[in-house]
Amino acid sequence: MKYVLNWHERPQGSALEYENVQKRILTLFRQWPMDSTWKIHSFVVRLGEWGGYILMECNDVAALHKFCSAFPGFAFAVNPVLDISDAVRVELEAIAWREGVAEG
Predict the structure, then answer these.
(1) Element (H, E) at 5
(2) What is the CATH number of the domain that holds 96?
(3) pLDDT per position as a tens digit, 75-95
(4) What distance lies between CA 34 and its chain's CA centroid?
(5) N or C end of the chain: which has fewer CB within 10 A?
């Protein structure tokens, strides 16, 4: 299944605490062992802030949850997505079914 992960840093305390959290996050990330079953299509950050997006494929939602749990300094939104060609195909099937249903 394909997912888009959106993340941003959780609000921190003082400027010094915020700097320390950023250092800790980068230390953790450098040592993070990417799950070998994932296929990452795009991994980008939003300019001017600590957050970004990952477009990925993953069939093990527990591994995805483990990743999100490893970085508590971030808030994650995980959204399942579908390729447009697949979405259009099933939407056309749904419309055809709906139009075939007789009025009441």
Answers:
(1) strand 2-9
(2) 3.30.70.1060
(3) 999 999 999 999 999 999 999
(4) 14
(5) C
